[in-house]
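As practice, study what follows.
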Amino acid sequence: MQAEERQKRIEEHLVRMEFASLEELSEMVDASVATVRRDLGVLEGRGTVQRTHGGAKLLNPKSDEFAFQARDTHQLEEKEIIGRACAELVEPNQTIIIDAGTTCFHAARHLAAKTPQVFTNSLPVINLFATANRLEVVVSGGVIYPRLGVLVGPLAVEAFSKVRADVAIMSCGGLTLEGITNSHGLLIDIQKAMIEAARKIIFCIDSSKFGRQSISKLCDLEVPDLIVTDKGAPSDVVRALRKRGVEVVTA
């Protein structure tokens, strides 16, 4: 593949995803990481992308499809109900990993009384607990991805791979009987590290995500210890999950 074509494909990918790792781009264009670095240097010189530690991000993204505030207006009542129910499942003084999903943020809103130690890559959760004197909040590090309100990249993945937690409160883009999926490869890498780090995995999934399949598979249905959802979740899927040994809490 010629340099011009590689750079075009890289730029088009960043327009869609807004952020990508060097490894992701290298695999996509079938070129070495060193070659991709050079291509990113060219694109940065044009003012379309910005290189970051371990990857690159799009400058001046136009779409707010994944903006945290925009996503948090979807199924808002259901997310609050799920978040409250999830928080009730957490024991006092546990170490909790909190994912960057909007429903996880609603769970975090009800956790302060449990005085947990929180480990997160979610900027809204960090901001929520910024003045909470009774909580210890550990931030993963990584590259700020403003539109998702999250820290991403190799540093974030490495941080979660080095911790151990009692519980991980997770989110996703979709759930089918084939598994749990999400919308961005960079989020998948971090979420997999979160799952490996925690003894208990709780997924907060509102009913609109049942039957939806996002682009990247996160895990099989046997991975969650608990799924917390709302009363709108399809009963046939809930029954199938329970048959597979997954505990489903309908709030």
